[in-house]
Amino acid sequence: MQHSEADLAAFRECFERNGTPRLLDALRWQYLDNPSGELFVDLALSDERIAAIYAVQPALVRVRGARRLAVQSVDTLVDADFRGRGLFIKMAQSVYQRVREREGAFVYGFPNGNSAPGFFNKLGWLSLDPVPFLVRPLRTGFVASKLPLARWLRRLPDLRLPIGRTKLEAAQELRPVSKFDPALGALWERFASDVVVAVERSPEYLRWRLGKPGERYECLGVFEGTQPVAFCAYTTVDKHGGRIGYVIELLHDPGCHATGAALLAECLRRMSTDGADAVLAWTFRHAPNAKAYSRVGFVPLPERLRPVELHIGVRPLDESLTEVLSDRRNWYISYCDSDTV
Predict the structure, then answer these.
(1) How far from each other are the two terminal CA atoms of the chain, in whole angstroms?
(2) pTM (2 decimals)?
(3) Residue 89 contacts by C-beta under 8 Å, 6 or more apart in sequence?
(4) Which residues contact 57 (CB under 8 A, 6 or more apart)?
(5) What is the pLDDT of residues 178-190, one digit of tens each?
(6) Which CATH number does the domain 5-127 belong to among 3.30.540.10, 2.60.410.10, 3.40.630.30, 3.30.450.20?
(7) In terms of Cα–Cα distance, which of 98, 8, 97 is closest to 53?
């Protein structure tokens, strides 16, 4: 695919023809406006009609202290009239080779239950499962509706669950964040000082990621004077049979779990006021912010209760990184890595 509006429109038309409509503005944001400046989208054509698409989303990442190019596998589609010809595998391998030629470090992503076998069994992906879902219930009725409870238990009053009181230090202040400046980039650097593998949450990346068309993100920070010491981005949407809050990103100064928890608690209160029944997050138990999540009542979401079947995996393109990339303890991820929220 070329960096052109015509190719983008054809991309959208192919998805729409196959029952998966996409917003043109969102596609433009994802592929043409990506801050990496790279474009890795392969189109298979048949008589000027798109027969298949394999698209990855490039990003700058940190790997063992180095800054590298990597890509996330996000859009895969074979037109209904062209399935069964091996196009998915051929196109993925072609894209991976182009990324490798640009010295890309790896491909990663979150394939669903239908596509996971193709990635893990045919494209050499390594599993980092399970996806680290966390949940913080906010309403008893919603929780009861998702559990195999006796009928009489489901008739209990539907109550808002308390969030609890958390306090900031005297010199700290809550403020909305509307600019992604170098001070926020410095917070990320401090937060991620011991992280081995992650997409760089630079100001440029956050400005782009949290500017996704069709989404409404709220950003809140804790400041000491002019310096941010914690940052949270979140949203609330109607999804999965309820109103669900998502913590897109949570950063705080190293070891300052109480500050991170206080900010997160305030975001929970705001999502609750916005009608959220429960709040979801992604973070590994070894992540720098894991204790902040735990302090405000987030718990691991059992796989049988997860709203969708998702997997997490990586395909090393630089073979020298295989050992590092295959160990989930080296990774940091959040919903900032998701292309669906």
Answers:
(1) 25
(2) 0.94
(3) 118, 122, 123
(4) 30, 31, 34, 71, 72, 74, 339
(5) 999 999 999 999 9
(6) 3.40.630.30
(7) 8
